[in-house]
Amino acid sequence: MDKLLTLFVGAIFVIAFVVFLGLLLSLPVMLLWNGCLVGAIAGVSEISWLQAWGIMILCAFLFKSNAKSS
Fold first, then answer.
1. Distance from C-alpha of 42 to C-alpha of 45, rounded to nearest angstrom
2. Which of 24, 36, 38, 66 is most buried (most C-beta within 10 Å)?
3. Sequence ranges of the domains in the chain
4. Residue 31 and residue 42: Cα distance in Å, rounded?
């Protein structure tokens, strides 16, 4: 039973760390978007931190390389 609990706590820790890291890495995306695009392109509005996180996830899906090196 202790092994299962340790595995569960470890999985929760890994998930929390991935979410934290994703949110931390989305901060530069938000700052660049709000600093560069809002003033340069008419009609572009500022984005929130969670919207920047969503843009990062979308870009990861769109530009992910599936090529395997042999």
1. 9
2. 38
3. 2-62
4. 18
